[in-house]
Amino acid sequence: GKGWESAYNIRDLPVKGDIIVGNDVWLGYDCLIRNGVTIGNGAIVAARSVVVKDVPSYAIVAGNPAKVVKMRFDKETIDRLEKIAWWDWDVEKITKNLKLISHLDIDALERA
Known about the structure:
Elements: E1 20-21, E2 26-27, E3 32-33, E4 38-39, E5 44-45, E6 50-51, E7 59-63, E8 66-71, H1 75-84, H2 91-96, H3 98-102, H4 106-111
Parallel strand pairs: 1-4, 2-5, 3-6, 5-7
Antiparallel strand pairs: 7-8
């Protein structure tokens, strides 16, 4: 046996669920995300942050444990971006509107 016979079965270890990362999220270098955490769309996780709780959409989090430093946009803008959901568009539509996406022209994206 060489000791491996007493090793834990990975299926018996406690798990809090999957890590879910939204769309258009920036994950900084060497950040750690705990099991069961959901990171909302458009969020930014700073380098070396330890994320132990869910992160709202378009929040910027940093630290150990990670805390919301600020929101990237106001609530109305966040609601508009979530409704646009450009990441669900087909590749051709994304490619055609890449400049609008990268410049965050929300009015034009709503018309696209």
